[in-house]
Amino acid sequence: MQRYFVPAENWNDNEIVITGDDAHHIIRVMRSKTGETIICSHPNGQAATSTITSITNNVVHAVVKEWLEGSAESPVEVTIAQGLPKNDKMETVLQKGTELGAASFIPVRSERTVVVWDDKKMDKKMRRFNKIVKEASEQSQRNKMPSIQPISDLKKLAEVNAGYHLKLFAYEEEAKKETQQLFSSYIKNVRPGERVLIVIGPEGGFSEKEADLLKQNAFYPVRLGPRILRTETAALYALASISYQFEESAYY
Amino acid sequence: MQRYFVPAENWNDNEIVITGDDAHHIIRVMRSKTGETIICSHPNGQAATSTITSITNNVVHAVVKEWLEGSAESPVEVTIAQGLPKNDKMETVLQKGTELGAASFIPVRSERTVVVWDDKKMDKKMRRFNKIVKEASEQSQRNKMPSIQPISDLKKLAEVNAGYHLKLFAYEEEAKKETQQLFSSYIKNVRPGERVLIVIGPEGGFSEKEADLLKQNAFYPVRLGPRILRTETAALYALASISYQFEESAYY
């Protein structure tokens, strides 16, 4: 069943008004009719099967049929701080990261960032990014849409204490070491409801100076397996592992 | 240090001859000179730092300096049988799957396969696929290059007993069930050295009939987390989880 994320102001108790792209999708793409059922998600994370009550010029009205209980949300709130990658790799991270359960994304500028996003470009990019995250949330049946936070500098990210219970950064030098702290040794100590921040560098990774800055601010360096991952693969490894640990294992 | 996969016939004890694209890469892209060090990987999985002894017209000669001990190969041999996906998604699975440690890939045709690959297209595709896997192996510092097996029908794949210790298939219906066997409950029973086959459907997943066929042939249905993953994300989830379990956990 198709799921739509409907802004809070479009809910009036059990009555829902759907406009814009989603209405277009319901009317023109799905060719749904009055009486058919869709799933509507409220930004608070609740979702309900809903019956379409009327379809007029690009506006769909629906009414809640049944609130859904099950949740496809990770018990751990993971934020991916992704070093700005080249080409369309940020879109890969956002799309697949949403499928894999990320709660939030922060695009990060660091020493080895190559791409330049000026403010004008940024507005357009952010609109596109939000669209990707919304579509991936609908497709993967998420209850909550991940947020995309404003672009940050690594230094600011490192120094602002935003209440994370665990802060990690992927560090290629860790993958090359003979012995290292295992990724799972950090993850297994996280408790449901806690917030984890994982920082991933751009293509060239982090400089030694940046690694030192992060360590000084209580970020732990981790490797994500013994192989050298591309920047856009690292976030997916981290998110899949956390899902495996908290959603596909019996004890944690 | 740059790594190159050199065919067995190009090794003569400790002397290595590098030709073709790799020689081009060494000479024109890396602009390496005699005396510089590269890593050469033998198809048997061994790798050595090697000194370039001569560079002539598109041929590079090198001699083994030191055999490397560490291995970036997964202790578990995972084969991904991937339902033929649309567009360039197979390339995503091959590239990222190689980074994440897959031992082998099998492209699979099934009931809901939409794309058509005729034999002529297939040859060209396979050449391109092998190139992607080779480059991803070099980039991720693998010791062994994953193999790409010939395209198979699901029925054949299900019925041929190829000596796998564990056979799983990703089944969307599992993700929708209230209770299900956890993915980790299968993975945790695998021992190092064992072979695992994971079958992933195309965009539309598997039909009930196909799921029955697989079950009859000792394939277990699994969900990969509670969210509905795109076909190309499913393989990456499985491989990252297996790496997390066997390469980033203390006990298994």
Automatic annotation (TrEMBL), chains A, B:
Subcellular location, record wording: Cytoplasm
Reaction equation(s) it catalyzes: uridine(1498) in 16S rRNA + S-adenosyl-L-methionine = N(3)-methyluridine(1498) in 16S rRNA + S-adenosyl-L-homocysteine + H(+)
This protein's record includes keyword Hydrolase: no
Pfam families assigned to the protein according to its UniProt record, in alphabetical order: Methyltrans_RNA, PUA_4
Molecular function via GO: methyltransferase activity
Domain Ribosomal RNA small subunit methyltransferase E PUA-like: 18-63
SUPFAM superfamilies xrefs: alpha/beta knot, PUA domain-like
Keyword Magnesium: no
InterPro entries: Alpha/beta_knot_MTases (IPR029028), PUA-like_sf (IPR015947), RsmE (IPR006700), RsmE_MTase_dom (IPR046886), RsmE_PUA-like (IPR046887), tRNA_m1G_MTases_N (IPR029026)
Matches recorded under PANTHER family: 16S RRNA (URACIL(1498)-N(3))-METHYLTRANSFERASE (PTHR30027:SF3), RIBOSOMAL RNA SMALL SUBUNIT METHYLTRANSFERASE E (PTHR30027)
Protein name: Ribosomal RNA small subunit methyltransferase E
Phylogenetic lineage: Bacteria, Bacillati, Bacillota, Bacilli, Bacillales
